[in-house]
Write a sequence for this structure.
């Protein structure tokens, strides 16, 4: 399948540092794509290039096979990390203004805004000035304005910052709904838990380079480090010496009133069935589970590694 | 283009709907009208209130010489000074004019008694009348007929006339030209500063409220900047036109109410002062009237108003672009100082130099400053009422257009980088780098 957005060899250099170094990413249609990376990795630079706020020094970006051009901005909805509204302007008036800048007609914007405002239960704010609202309320309005013109491509940069857990859930549900309705979504965040929850695919950028790209599940699988957790009820008294005979590495243990928890690492040649068989003599096995790395672990592992190699150089 | 209009509309409407704009729009003409009207009102107020004046003339020189009018009633009395003073205190008379018998044979002293402040026009009238009477008597004593002196008096009308290349002649009125020129250049100076800094503040507001990134994901930074600059230009023009219309109509209404009632009064006081010259009055009035018409005719209104609008817009566009660049480079207004100084210097220089240029509007200083785009809006306005060669005007205008295209180009480059930069306060070196991105 053709990617919705192809980022090809994009390089962006600022006066004294390289923000993006020949980054290529394929973002598939109708998926939630996580754009991850530590602070200063170049995510915002890339997002701004996609939004045509800045231009790349070299490389190109294709949207459905077409080189990005000015008309594409109406197909993109962008919620920047640093966001805000005109403080002195009224909510409804402002939302209509921003929608019209995205090419909507006044009446269409008005109609759709009423629907969204009703959904978010903020219709009675229509005639109030933005400065009278709390930060969370302003964020809601900002979200509505971003998605109002039904863009094919949505870019959310840290969309959940500043929201309480109830509104985070409301927003997550809306983001998933937008994907189900056909939108392609780029989701940039540091919050790895929400990445696992929402993203179908991710790309990890560090120091201007792409270091990882793929489907979330496949990445976890590929980055498995053969660690397991086992729990025993009434373990044999000499479990420690028995364990030392086996080809496993003990990462940690926890023994409280007849219950033993082990955290083990094996080598890739040993499959889980064999390991399970080896564990059985140690006691009554109540739980056996392979520990797949979380996105958080992968993030720290990949970013930490490059940070280390960079400091080695 | 469509989006620039959307932005322009927002910038225009939010500013025009602001309370401060509405207040300034109405207060401005009121202040201006007040400047014109208050002196007239004050002058008429002095005439209000009839004065009952007792004249005790021990010399008998002036009996019947003070003439009655609406404001002054003269009563010639022959009583002791002290009892008359009491009568003034008892409000029988408002004033007592006491002319004591002179030590020599010419009366040169007089005293006025009153229980309150004496209006200036009353005392000056009394003084003038006495002076004239004494002068006449003195002339007669030396055997000269006062009418001979009167007929020997002459007034000189000095009319300066400009010769054109093509043989035309126009009367020129230097004082009017100086006033018009300075007024125009001061107005342009203030408009550039007031509305230029509005552009700057608007951009800082967008930057600090962080809405700017949302907007430039929909429109180009250049469109946002130009929408703002042109929107505020229209606010400036609207304010200016409303001021002209409102000031004009306030003044017009005032003239209708007061002017009609006042005209005869002025005549009577005048006639009272120059008593036998009544026959000359209509003639003089006609002369003044034709002179006013000539002055108005001599002012080239289409050129002055046309060039005012052109130089206001051109100068504003040139400086607003620079103000926009400054606004985009900083995070708050306090940081603008270091950049504001070099931008304001040419404007202030233009205004200061204008005061010298009015004395020599054709000099080389005037010429060069009215050609250089950074000072031309302020300086050229001073020269225009004196007449500027069309070729020179065209050169100055063309350079001004080039000037604002140039500053807009520079500003756009700084702006598109500046609006996304937060935290650090950039120096000139930094700005130079942004120019080359």
């Amino acid at each position: 399948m053709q990617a919705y957005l192809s980022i090809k060899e994009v390089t962006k250099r600022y006066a004294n540092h390289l923000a993006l170094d020949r980054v290529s990413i394929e973002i598939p249609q109708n998926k939630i794509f996580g754009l991850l990376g530590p602070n200063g990795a170049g995510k915002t630079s890339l997002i701004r290039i996609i939004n045509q706020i800045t231009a790349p020094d070299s490389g190109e970006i294709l949207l459905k096979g077409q080189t990005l051009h000015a008309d594409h901005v109406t197909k993109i909805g962008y919620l920047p990390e640093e966001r805000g509204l005109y403080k002195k302007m009224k909510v409804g008036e402002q939302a209509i203004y921003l929608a019209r800048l995205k090419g909507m007609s006044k009446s269409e914007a008005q109609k759709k805004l009423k629907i969204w405002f009703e959904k978010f239960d903020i219709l009675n704010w229509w005639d109030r000035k933005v400065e009278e609202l709390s930060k969370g309320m302003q964020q809601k309005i900002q979200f509505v304005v971003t998605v109002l013109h039904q863009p094919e491509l949505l870019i959310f940069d840290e969309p959940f910052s500043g929201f309480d857990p109830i509104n985070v859930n409301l927003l997550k549900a809306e983001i998933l709904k937008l994907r189900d309705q056909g939108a392609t979504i780029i989701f940039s965040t540091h919050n790895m838990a929400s990445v696992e929850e929402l993203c179908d695919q991710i790309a990890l950028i560090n120091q201007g380079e792409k270091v990882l790209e793929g489907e979330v599940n496949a990445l976890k699988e590929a980055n498995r480090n053969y660690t397991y957790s086992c729990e025993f009820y009434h373990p044999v008294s000499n479990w420690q010496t028995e364990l030392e005979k086996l080809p496993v590495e003990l990462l940690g243990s926890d023994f409280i009133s007849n219950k033993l928890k082990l955290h083990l690492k094996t080598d890739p040649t040993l499959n889980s069935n064999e390991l399970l068989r080896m564990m059985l003599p140690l006691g009554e096995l109540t739980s056996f589970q392979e520990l797949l790395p979380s996105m958080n672990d992968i993030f720290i592992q990949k970013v930490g590694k490059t940070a280390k190699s960079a400091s080695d150089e | 283009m469509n989006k620039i209009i959307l932005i322009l509309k927002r910038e225009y409407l939010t500013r025009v709907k602001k309370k401060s704009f509405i207040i300034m729009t109405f207060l401005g003409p009121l202040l201006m009208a007040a400047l014109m009207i208050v002196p007239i009102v004050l002058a008429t107020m002095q005439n209000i209130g009839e004065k009952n004046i007792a004249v005790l003339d021990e010399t008998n020189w002036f009996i019947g010489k003070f003439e009655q009018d609406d404001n002054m009633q003269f009563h010639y009395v022959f009583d002791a000074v002290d009892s008359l003073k009491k009568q003034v205190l008892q409000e029988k008379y408002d004033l007592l004019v006491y002319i004591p018998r002179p030590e020599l044979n010419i009366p040169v002293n007089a005293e006025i008694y009153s229980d309150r402040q004496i209006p200036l026009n009353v005392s000056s009238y009394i003084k003038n009348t006495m002076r004239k009477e004494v002068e006449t008597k003195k002339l007669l004593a030396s055997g000269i007929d006062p009418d001979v002196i009167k007929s020997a008096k002459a007034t000189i009308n000095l009319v300066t006339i400009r010769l054109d290349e093509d043989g035309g002649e126009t009367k020129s009125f230097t004082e009017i030209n100086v006033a018009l020129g300075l007024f125009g250049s001061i107005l342009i100076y203030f408009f550039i500063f007031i509305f230029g800094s509005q552009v700057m503040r608007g951009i800082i507001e967008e930057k600090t409220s962080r809405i700017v990134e949302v907007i430039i994901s929909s429109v180009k930074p250049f469109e946002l900047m130009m929408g703002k600059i042109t929107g505020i230009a229209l606010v400036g023009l609207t304010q200016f036109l409303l001021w002209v219309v409102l000031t004009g109509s306030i003044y017009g209404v005032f003239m209708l109410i007061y002017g009609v009632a006042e005209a005869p009064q002025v005549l009577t006081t005048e006639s009272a002062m120059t008593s036998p010259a009544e026959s000359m009055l209509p003639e003089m009035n006609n002369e003044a009237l034709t002179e006013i018409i000539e002055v108005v005719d001599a002012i080239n209104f289409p050129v002055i108003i046309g060039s005012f609008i052109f130089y206001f817009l051109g100068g504003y566009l040139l400086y607003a672009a620079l103000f926009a660049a400054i606004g985009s480079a900083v995070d708050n207004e306090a940081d603008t100082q270091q950049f504001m100084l070099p931008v304001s210097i040419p404007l202030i220089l233009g205004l200061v130099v204008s005061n010298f240029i009015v004395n020599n509007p054709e000099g080389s200083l005037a010429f060069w400053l009215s050609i250089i785009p950074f000072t031309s809006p302020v300086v050229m306005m001073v020269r225009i009422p004196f007449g500027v060669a069309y070729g020179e005007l065209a050169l100055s205008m063309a350079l001004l257009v080039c000037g604002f295209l140039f500053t807009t180009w520079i500003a756009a480059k700084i702006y598109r980088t500046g609006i996304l930069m937060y935290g650090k306060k950039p120096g000139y070196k930094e700005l130079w780098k942004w120019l080359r991105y």
DSSP finds 15 helices and six strands in chain B. Chain B has two domains: 49-152, 174-435. The interface with chain A takes residues 3, 6-7, 10, 14, 205-206, 209-211, 213-221, 420, 422, 433, 437 of chain B (CB under 8 Å). The first helix of chain B runs from residue 2 to 16.
